[in-house]
Write a structure and sequence with these properties.
By secondary structure, this protein is of the alpha/beta class. The protein has 13 helices and twelve strands. It has a seven-stranded mixed sheet, sandwiched between helices. Helix 2 runs parallel beside helix 10.
Length: 345
């Protein structure tokens, strides 16, 4: 029973079937195929705008290539210090931008503090001795499972417009955010000032498919060359794009996200009633961060439950649910935590 990550899952059956179907026959390479065109059109329909769409296979490629067209080598990308691009991309943003610096910003639940962001967005502007603020990156949902609200994104978007900065959104769990906020994708992206979205599918049911959505179409030509130069222009692009088309068909992406979110809420509600357990962060989507007594953590591991521990405050663990998380596994975790907590008391 694995609650370590939504990356531990396989793929949705509908997406696997789509791969099988489009595997038959021949199609033009490098994205010049009908599957890629249809998937791009589907994204434009969902986001209600004529954006440029590029497919890649990993979230790291989506994020780092996105930032490469937003910040020059002497630029700075302002991001939360607990964001994925800052802590988990192994220097990828610096590599693909040619040296742009990531400036870490604080804020609760891995959301950017607007005052802190405003302060850093004006530092060093025009000073040849300092990196130049060029872009802001936000994560939706954050690495602490919190969803930026529409008003929060609009405020950041307005700050970016005022400062002349580009706004990137890391949407590895974007579907979970849409399911949680019950809003239109356009409202919390380009209408709120987002220039580029890394639109994730892999964590939510795809095998390996992400899309970079350029709402600022002027970035498209440079991005195309950078994707090729970076080794992410797949010859058999239909195998990526076909996953995305299936992901977005009949609202599979939202159904998967709603289930994952519901399982996280069930898990949080169950654990909140166990003495000695504290839920330390908002449970807006499919992640939660409970603080457990150490004997309970060890007992859960011994019972065969898998989850991450050690990257946060002492005894705070991360539990992640997914599109195919079984309710029985959630209930078993709650029951085991209750039993172990009572034993430790």
């Amino acid at each position: 029973m694995n609650f370590a990550s939504d990356n531990t899952t396989g793929a949705s059956p509908a997406i696997l079937q789509a791969i099988t179907n489009l595997n038959d026959g021949r199609a033009m390479p490098y994205g010049q195929d009908d599957f890629s065109h249809r998937a791009g059109d589907k994204i434009r329909e969902i986001f209600e705008t004529d954006a440029e769409v590029f497919f890649v296979a990993t979230g790291t490629a989506a994020n780092t290539l996105s930032l490469s067209v937003l910040a020059p080598p002497y630029g700075a990308v302002l991001c939360h210090w607990q964001s994925h691009i800052y802590e988990d991309e192994c220097g990828g943003p610096e590599f693909f931008t040619g040296g742009a610096k990531l400036i870490p910003i604080g804020g609760p639940n891995a959301k950017l503090d607007l005052e802190d962001l405003d302060h850093h967005s004006g530092r060093g502007v025009g000073d040849v001795h300092m990196v130049q603020p060029s872009a802001v990156s936000i994560t939706q949902v954050t690495e602490f499972g919190a969803a930026y609200t529409l008003s929060e994104i609009e405020a950041i978007g307005e700050l970016c417009r005022t400062r002349g900065l580009k706004l990137h959104m890391d949407g590895a769990r974007f579907a979970n955010a849409i399911a949680a906020l019950d809003c239109a994708p356009a409202d919390i992206t380009w209408k709120a000032g987002v220039d580029v979205l890394s639109f994730g599918a892999t964590k939510n049911g795809a095998m390996a498919s992400e899309a970079v959505i350029l709402f600022d179409k002027g970035l498209a030509q440079e991005f195309a060359f950078r994707r090729k130069r970076g080794g992410h222009l797949f010859s058999k692009m239909r195998l990526l794009a076909g996953q995305m088309e299936a992901y977005l068909t009949d609202d599979l992406w939202l159904a998967n996200a709603r289930h994952a979110n519901a399982m996280a809420r069930r898990l949080a509600d169950g654990l909140a009633g166990v003495p000695g357990i504290e839920i330390t962060a908002p449970v807006d989507a499919n992640m939660l961060f409970p603080k457990l007594p150490r004997p309970v953590i060890k007992g859960l591991w011994a019972d065969g439950f898998q989850f991450y521990d050690g990257r946060w405050e002492p005894n705070v663990v991360r539990l992640v649910t997914a599109f195919n998380t079984h309710q029985e596994d959630v209930d078993a975790f709650i029951a085991a935590a209750r039993r172990l907590s009572e034993k430790a008391a």
